Amino acid sequence: MNPIDFKEKTKVLKKPDGMTDEECRSLAVWNGDKKQCISCWKGNIWDRLRYLFTGKVWIYIWYGQSQPPVYVGTEYPLEFSGEPK
Fold this sequence. Notes:
By secondary structure, the protein is of the alpha+beta class. It has one domain. It has one helix and four strands; from the N terminus they run ββββα. It has one helix at 45-54, and strands at 2-4, 11-13, 27-29, 40-42. It has a two-stranded antiparallel sheet with strand order 1-4. The chain is globular.
């Protein structure tokens, strides 16, 4: 899966200093109300086939001792007003 740019983004989070492009890349996000950070990701053909046949998505959290609140979904999370559903 790769993060992709989207028109509703409000900022771009830069990769941490000291990390390579292979380890991390910048991430376009919507952060309108400062309570959540929404990004958009797109899978390549192999990602799509794996999901089609397994129905599974794995979430990786780097540098964390615990799991922060996250949500993964396929539905569009922003209404036309720019606020999350």
